[in-house]
Amino acid sequence: DLMHLDGKYLIQTDRGCQVKYQNYIDRNFNKMMQDMKANHTLYDTRHTFITTAHICNFDLLYLQRIVGHKSSTITENVYTHTYIEQLKTEINKLSY
């Protein structure tokens, strides 16, 4: 198990060393995608997480810090997506 809540890194080796990005993809992420018969990239998970966090009304500053963006503009404009159901819900807030 690579996840350690009590270490310096969330994902680290048993010795407490940081797992390198490409090593994680090669050794873990790609195998998980094969097992699930899915075709996604690790960046797809960032988009999903940030969009879901936005829907859950995460504070933008904290979300920006969680995902490591220097600018909230990147977090909001690049990684946050809207779904048609959300758009309908917002439109239905209008009184006619």
Report on this model:
The chain is 54% helix and 0% strand. By secondary structure, it is mainly alpha-helical. The mean pLDDT is 84.
Terminal residue distance: 54 Å
Shape: extended
The profile of the biggest β sheet is: none
- Round the mean pLDDT to the nearest integer and report it: 84
Q: What are the segments in which pLDDT stays under 50 over at least 5 consecutive residues?
A: none
Counting DSSP E segments of at least 2 residues, the number of strands comes to 0
| Total DSSP helices | 5
Which structural class is indicated by helix and strand composition? Answer: mainly alpha
The arrangement of helices and strands along the chain is HHHHH
Q: Helix content range of the residues, please?
A: 40-55%
Strand content: under 5%
Radius of gyration: 17 Å
Helix and strand layout, with pairings?
Elements: H1 21-36, H2 42-55, H3 60-67, H4 72-77, H5 84-91
Key features?
single chain; 96 residues; mainly alpha; 5 helices; 54% helix
What does this entry show, briefly?
The protein is an all-alpha fold and 96 residues long.
